[in-house]
Amino acid sequence: MALLTLNSIQTFYGNIQALRDISLTVEEGEIVTLIGANGAGKTTTLMSICGITPVRSGTIVLDGKDITRMAPNKIVELGIAQVPEGRRIFPQLTVTENLDMGAFLRSDKEGIRRDLEEVFELFPRLAERRHQQGGTLSGGEQQMLAISRALMMRPKILLLDEPSLGLAPIFVQHIFEIIGKINRERKTTVFLVEQNAYMALKIAHKGYVLQNGAIKLADTAENLLANEEVRKAYLGV
After folding, report:
1. R_g of the chain computed on alpha carbons
2. DSSP letter, residue 219
3. CA–CA dist 66, 68 (Å, integer)
4. Which of 75, 124, 146, 215 is the most exposed place for a label (fewest CB within 10 A)?
5. CATH number for the domain harbouring residue 196
6. How far is Cα 80 from Cα 212, in angstroms, rounded to an integer?
């Protein structure tokens, strides 16, 4: 059984249909990427999973439990953590305080302490800036903080919305390396929404191509990288 399954999801904004019969699966331990142009419906897919944008029809199942009509806070409690587009850290809180917010639902103090140490090992820059306010960090450092805050929840699945957006190339490379490392070493399942199709497919196990709110292609990441249509439309080659 897949960890996350979307079955024929249809989502609307008023009378405008944003998602059209979206069906996909994310197996435990995978990195699955959803690629597509701006406005294709990638963020709406994540918002539908998290219960922020209501689904009009279809079902969303997490670890065998139907979460389609569930309140967003209940979905978080079941183990979904989202790193939203634009990071949305708490700018007035320190790095450590932001990370503490990620562990808000947890009560295992020793586990939280260990995870905090692991996050600082993963992102040494954050360790150096642990007492610094989040709003004073660079864009790349804020993205590291947003990902780390989500990891502090110990989620069943990590949803990443455009983690490379607005970052310098050196940070983009580093962020994708870290996502791969999180998946390999922490065994964290990742659902990655990304406009940088090449970088996303390089670290993913499988991918879906979203076009005008509908899934156009689905295959292994390796096959999508070699697909002529994908290469012309999304890889610029």
Report:
1. 17
2. E
3. 6
4. 124
5. 3.40.50.300
6. 26
pLDDT for 133-142, tens place per residue?
Answer: 998 998 888 9
* Number of separate helices (H) and strands (E) present in the chain: 10, 10
Residue type, 118: E
* Angle between helix 109-122 and 169-186 (nearest 10): 140
Sequence-ordered list of residues with C-beta below 8 angstroms from that of 162, at least 6 positions apart, any chain: 42, 43, 85, 193, 194, 195
Beta strands in the chain, from DSSP E residues, in sequence order: 4-13, 16-26, 31-35, 57-62, 65-66, 80-83, 157-161, 189-194, 206-211, 214-220
CB 95 within 8 A of CB 131: yes
Tell me the CA end-to-end span of the chain in Å, nearest whole number.
Answer: 36
Residue 236: predicted pLDDT: 67
Q: In whole angstroms, what is the distance from residue 141 CA to residue 147 CA? A: 10
- Its domain, for residue 33, covers 4-235
The structural domain count of the chain equals: 1
Instruction: Report whether pLDDT(99) > 70.
Output: yes
Eight-state DSSP code of residue 55: -
d(CA 175, CA 168): 11
